[in-house]
Amino acid sequence: MTNTALVLIIGGLAVFVGAIVQGGVGFGLALVAAPVLTMLAPDLMPGAIQVANLTLPLFTLAMEWRKVDWRGVGFAVLGRLPGSAIGAVIIVYFSVYTRGVFVAVMVLIAVVLTAKALSVPRNGATLASAGFVSGITGTATGIGGPPIALVYQSAKGPQIRATLAMFFFLSSVQSLLVLALVEELPPQALLTGAVLLVPMGLGFLVSGPLRRYLDGGKVRVAVLVVAAASAVALIVQNVVTQTLAP
């Protein structure tokens, strides 16, 4: 089986599962799919996952756009601008392995700190800071959801999903432009991302029951579990890749 077939089959399955998670929790597509796609085709990342990151939020916004916290999105996007510039420097000068471990460790630290407190204060400073970190990690690896999700963990499910969706849409546009400017967005990455939109759409369609379950008051736990599990998986994936590298 060719590497392209593996990317489309195994990567497509990862995108399908990630879309189910994000459809219910508000984030998780990149957390689930980016490590798999990075292992299968590192030269196509993070461009390929950013195509999906750009598209999936539109499905959520079509259903829950009235719940967007526009003030929060504004602060987060403002903070993301300088973060994206740093992310561009990282993607040019650091290896995929280094970037992956960096992101995973940061996510785990955020989860531990958050789990010890009842909630992270949601104000202009924390939102801009989360946007800044998201700009770094999202541009460098395609994984920018955890910082913003952790700030919104105490909000209700519809508000989390709608606000994160708007932030992800704007962030993905920004990241794709930055990747193009630093010549890290090959046409094959865009094509692969476009093909992966099919399993992404199917995953969102079957996420309805998960949304209803999590809206019963289980969103915060789900956010922490998904973030922590994906960070551990990203560390394992990068360590294995580095070990097997010739």
From TrEMBL:
Record keywords: Cell membrane, Membrane, Transmembrane, Transmembrane helix, Transport
Main location: membrane
Source organism, top-level taxon: Bacteria
Record membrane topology: Multi-pass membrane protein
Transmembrane segments: 6-32, 75-94, 101-118, 130-152, 164-182, 188-207, 219-240
Localization: Cell membrane
Family: Belongs to the 4-toluene sulfonate uptake permease (TSUP) (TC 2.A.102) family.
Listed name of the protein: Probable membrane transporter protein
